[in-house]
Design brief:
There is one protein chain. By secondary structure, the protein is mainly α. The protein is built from 15 helices and no strands. It has one domain (about 85-340): ABC transporter involved in vitamin B12 uptake, BtuC, CATH 1.10.3470. Helix 4 runs antiparallel to helix 12 and helix 4 crosses helix 14 (about 295-315).
Length: about 350
């Protein structure tokens, strides 16, 4: 027993030392997460192709290997991996911005109704007005509508974002009911086509949704990183932020716009994948200094977690594929329960 206790405490000490080392070097910690993301991406390409070996997969990636393997990788697996990476980055970054603005870890797009609003409008584009480019645009409109309703009816952030969260939960429930009503009233073929947007899936994602999400990240991630300076100060108090020259109203509106864009296009691409926006920012806080908000770390963790969930969903019960939204819900829900038990909703981040 003493030997086991010594080994346990020794392992914990090394873990804490590594975390402190990474916290002191934010760019090194970001590169470490990106390196893990690259490893998981290669594993997603390699698994199932063990007969070709690592060298065969690498040759296929550069166009020098087996033609069928190259077709398999570039036509099926690479687009799916890219969709997971960019959608996860959008969800992680959006969750980080919204949590920081509301000063509450529970203020994530899926909890405050943005996901449900985007899903309802995306479903409407399939069962009501099926146009080729309608899904990403209508998902964006749905997220914007949910955000405007939650923000407007709650009168702003309130105390530690509590009113905003409660109002968002109610609005999300309304949009969820609207989604179920539309699915109940449509025909079987349309309901089957809309099913991936109800549970979250990376299977056969539309190419236009991938491009919409990519361009959204190119614009919104740098803008969100610029907003984090003001958000860092706003974590203290409204009075301190105003005294330091921060425009509270402008910063909150810009943050909400960026969050809505990231969430809307991510839902248009993958459907309502829950818990990524909650878990990714929390993981990022463990490897960045306590006085900083890092949208880049949250985006990297979001990509990593969503890709991991997709790999698990594909391989755990193969050949049966489990939608990625179900995997993230099963894994993330216990963490949400733990967060509710360990922290008060009013506690600032």
């Amino acid at each position: 027993m003493p030997v086991r206790t010594h080994l346990l405490f020794g392992t914990q000490h090394r873990t804490f030392s590594l975390l402190r080392y990474l916290k002191a070097r934010p760019w090194l910690s970001l590169l470490s997460v990106v390196a893990l993301l690259l490893l998981v991406s290669f594993y997603a390409l390699y698994v199932g192709n063990e007969a070709d070996g690592v060298v065969g997969v690498l040759l296929a990636l550069v166009g020098q290997g087996d033609e069928f393997l190259s077709f398999l990788l570039f036509e099926l697996r690479v687009p799916r991996i890219l969709a997971a990476v960019i959608a996860g980055a959008g969800l992680g970054a959006g969750g980080c911005l919204l949590q920081t603005m509301a000063r509450n870890r529970l203020a994530t797009p899926n909890i405050v109704g943005l996901d449900n609003g985007a899903t309802a409008f995306a479903i409407a584009s399939i069962v009501a007005i099926p146009l080729s480019l309608a899904t990403p645009l209508l998902a964006l409109m749905g997220a914007a509508t949910a955000a405007a309703l939650a923000f407007g009816l709650s009168g702003g952030m309130g105390s530690k974002g509590y009113r905003f969260i409660v109002m968002g939960v109610g609005i999300g429930a309304v949009f969820g009911a609207v989604t179920n009503f539309m699915l109940a009233r449509t025909d079987m073929d349309s309901a089957n086509a809309a099913y991936p947007w109800t549970v979250g899936s990376l299977n056969a994602r539309p190419e236009e949704a991938v491009w919409w999400m990519f361009f959204c990240l190119v614009i919104c991630l740098p803008l969100g990183a610029w907003l984090t300076r003001s958000l860092n100060i706003m974590r203290l108090s409204d009075e301190v932020a105003i005294s330091l020259g921060i425009s509270m109203r402008l910063t909150r509106w810009m943050t909400m716009v960026v969050t809505v864009c990231l969430t809307g296009f991510a839902v248009a691409l993958t459907g309502p994948v829950g818990m990524i926006a909650l878990v990714a920012p929390e993981a990022a806080r463990h490897i960045v200094p306590a006085d900083r908000v890092s949208i880049w770390h949250a985006a990297a963790f979001g990509s990593l977690f969503l890709l991991l969930a997709d790999v698990v969903g594909q391989r755990l019960w193969a050949p049966i594929e489990i939608p990625v939204g179900l995997i993230t819900a099963v894994v993330g829900s216990p963490y949400l329960i733990w967060l509710l038990l360990r922290r008060q909703p009013q506690q600032a981040i």
